[in-house]
Amino acid sequence: MNFSLYDILPAYAHLSKADLDPNWVLAARRENETLTDERALERVAELNGWTPPERISKKPRANAFPLLVHTGAFGWAVAEQWHSRNEIQLFGGGTMAWDDVKLAYRQKLPGAGNLESSETAFAVFRDAFMARKPLIVAAIIATVTINLIAVATSLYSMQVYDRVIPLASYPTLTVLTVGVLGALLLDFLLRSARALLLEREAAEMDVEISEFFFSRAQAIRMDARPPGVGTFAAQFRGLEQVRSLLSFGSLFAVADLPFAAFFVAVIWWIAGPTVALVPIVIFPLSLLLAFLFAWKIRKQSAAAMVTGHQKNGLLVEAFDAAETLKAAHGRWHFAARWSRLVDEVLGQEDSVKTWSAVASSLFAVLSQTSYVLIVCVGAVQAAQNEITIGALIACSILSSRINGPLIGQLPSLIVQASYARSSLALLDGLLALPVEREGAQGVRAESLEGPLELEYCRFAYPGGAAVVDIERLRIEPGETVALIGGIGSGKSTLLRLLAGIYSPTQGAARVGGLDMSQIADEQLRRHMGYLPQDYRLVNGTLRENLVLGLPDPGDEAIIAAARKTGLIHMVTDHPLGLSRPISEGGRGLSGGQRTLTGLTRLFLMQPSVWLLDEPTSNLDATTETRVLQGLQQSMKSGDSFVMVTHKMALLSMVRRVIVLAKGRVWMDGTPHDVLGELKEKAKEQKAIAREQGRISAG
Ligand SMILES: Nc1ncnc2c1ncn2[C@@H]1O[C@H](COP(=O)(O)OP(=O)(O)OP(=O)(O)O)[C@@H](O)[C@H]1O
What's one GO MF term for it (predicted)? Predict the structure, then answer.
């Protein structure tokens, strides 16, 4: 039998603790790939946009496993570890001689980033940078050579003035000119190669870093997410600010810094300490001033950045809540807030701009002053025959090299550095937020079958009091439960805790005896089918929304599920059917249509635990009946079912009702008992109200 990647890649992802996108197969299936041949992995990586697989040519060490191996006889397999000196252990049982392995690969799967690391944002950039050591070494060699060539051109001028002109020595001039032109050609080639190579690498670094931060942001625990979407998104722009500071252009400027000392040494060597004293004083003075400016604008640039993010947040909110704003005639209120923020940003940026303009002029003047003083001091020395005219010319050329490139870029570098510093602090804040189940690193249990349990479970939103406080709650497999209670009593929050979307602030939430916070997210999500109250769709097609995060079951299964929920009308009413486009957030669809899409997705998913938050609140009576029948058909006998509802009529479809009040379990029993108790309580309250009415009337 010839095993294909279809069979073994999920096992490889499982062993490498990676979160394999279930739709990875789609692209290959579209191309009718069998994925059994030697090149299959390279093609899969290319079709899915993954980084190309790393070929392992030498005998791997124990820490290099798991590996994907291809053998001529059996096709693809996953090597788990060494079995003996020359044999490898294969996933699913069996061993194989290493010599029989034709090809071995390591494949980096997207999202398999080291998300649990508590690195700082700076460390993320630094590591990406340091991972490219050979290139950095090449860049350093090029930088050294380019600077040496700069010395060569100044020495050329010195020789021309001192040796060629006085003696009219044309052969020497020819030799020197050819030599220096050759050096300039080399300079051009080195600069171009350095820029080309490094910019290409910089683009790769960008992809790597932005993917890291994107996955990290997506992995942030739901209950720890910052509330402002727009503000949160704007923080991401900080990545670009840091990136532009760390661009190779600015790094070259900084790399030139040590050469300033080298050029001063050359000036000293050519013209002696008196001339060298000029750059020795002016260069450090420029640097000192640069640090002073940086310190001066730091506070303002940080403030401008925060306000800029708030501006972005307001913009997103204004678009998101456009309908409410229009209905409430609240546009002016937002316009006023917008103008206030714009003024604030302008005010804060104003001082940054002023200081950077002052810095620009000052550095330009300092650079000129350095040149003038070198010429002036050099002229005195030349007049006293202490140095030659050639040496004077060479020193003036070198002075422009000391103050030129770096000092010229300093003002913009200072501003960039200041913004980048604030951005790094914000990105650090993002990295400090707790992530779900450490990305893909959680425990992968054999099975999650078993009860849902909460024990001494308290949950509070950031900065708030506990909204759920439950000592013990156990929902057995196969149980059907309705969660009811007044508005704001904590039903939705409790459902999210049961779904593992939120983690308890105190206590534990378990499924099948395992703490949910320990279980790999992907396994937990496959087990738990959670339908939020306001189901949002994502930009794409209806089909994409229906199979989001699921292995594509094919159109027939989708249509069958859509028939069960009634979503089928939405499919047949549109000329594009399942390919009907869905706009961001599912705008353009009714609330009921969005809920049906979410429900159909759950039917396709076939979870073991169904957690539905007011699933029928947007549905008409006929659709509600159809959906409930569909649910009963779709649920397997051991599936647990928990539904938040305000509709008392729905209690007949469950065996247990839990009533919440102020986040605590107030009543818990069969629908008959709970409804009876609720009626009793209502009667008591009426009697108390009547009594109070009589007393106050009397
Ligand atoms: N994202 C949030 N941040 C802060 N507080 C929240 C958040 N979501 C809900 N709350 C608060 O938690 C409490 C419980 O809210 P929850 O949505 O769980 O109640 P509920 O019983 O589902 O209400 P409803 O019947 O209105 O849907 C409420 O007081 C609410 O104000």
Answer: ABC-type transporter activity
Ligand 1 and 488: CB distance under 6 A:
yes
505 burial type by CB count under 10 A (0-12 exposed, 13-18 middle, 19+ buried): middle
Please report, for the chain, the start and end positions of each structural domain, with discontinuous segments joined by +: 5-106, 121-434, 452-691
Report yes or no for ipTM above 0.90.
yes
Indicate the CATH number of 5-106 among 3.50.50, 3.90.70, 2.60.40, 3.30.310. Answer: 3.90.70
Is any atom of ligand 1 closer than 6 Å to the C-beta of 465? no
- Mutational pocket test of ligand 1: of 461, 498, 612, the residue with most ligand atoms within 8 Å of the beta carbon: 461
Q: Which atom of ligand 1 is nearest to the CA of 496?
A: 18
Question: In this structure, what token pair is assigned to residue 384?
Answer: 């006293």
For residue 692 the two structure tokens come to: 């109070």
Q: pTM score, two decimals?
A: 0.69
Beta strands per DSSP E along 431-568: 452-460, 466-475, 480-485, 506-511, 514-515, 528-531, 540-541
**Protein residue closest via CA to atom 24 of ligand 1:** 487
pLDDT digits (tens, 9 = 90+) for 21-57: 767 777 777 777 788 888 888 888 888 878 888 888 8
> How far is it, in rounded angstroms, from Cα 116 to Cα 660?
35
Q: Is the CB of 663 under 6 A from ligand 1?
A: no
> Do the beta carbons of residue 241 and residue 423 sit within 8 Å?
yes
Would you say the C-alpha torsion 156, 161, 163, 168 has a positive or negative sign? positive
CATH architecture entry for 121-434: Up-down Bundle (1.20)
User: Measured from the CA of 489, which atom of ligand 1 is nearest?
Assistant: 21
Helices 248-255 and 133-159, axial angle in degrees (round to 10): 50
Distance 588 CA to ligand 1 centre (A): 27
